[in-house]
Amino acid sequence: MLIVIADIQIRSGAQHRENVLNTFRKITPIVLQEDGCYGYELLVDHESDVSYQTKVPDSITMLEHWESVEHLNAHLQTPHMQAYQQQVKDDVLDVKIRIMQKGLSI
Would you indicate the residue range of the signal peptide (predicted)? Predict the structure, then answer.
């Protein structure tokens, strides 16, 4: 099982953030039906006043669970992901993808 963390840097401004969030709202149910997908979750900063929290307001994080790199690659080639990229191309500045695995099995 792979854990994918996609850090999506968006342009400043509420309209850019809302466009990306709305686009994810549309595709998430479709992605969750893909073969090899075991989780697809959008994460944003929690609003709190704790001093130890680092907030990145122009960032959205996707936490994904995929069976294999092949499943992840197939996901990236789907029509809905191609459409997503076109719909947010003016809103997204950069995407950094980390493909992780569990480091400890207890």
Answer: none
DSSP structure class, residue 66: E
Instruction: State the Cα–Cα distance between residues 80 and 94, nearest whole angstrom.
Output: 19
- Nearest C-alpha neighbor of 16 from the set 96, 97, 93, 81: 93
**Pairing, β 92-100 against β 2-10:** antiparallel
What fold, for 12-46+53-100?
Alpha-Beta Plaits (3.30.70)
- pTM value? 0.89
pLDDT tens track, the chain, 106 positions = 999 999 999 999 999 999 999 999 999 999 999 999 999 999 999 989 899 988 888 999 999 999 999 999 999 999 999 999 999 999 999 999 999 999 988 8
Cα 17 from chain centroid (whole Å): 13
Q: Is the dihedral of CA 99, 103, 105, 106 positive or negative?
A: negative
Q: What is the CA radius of gyration of the chain?
A: 15
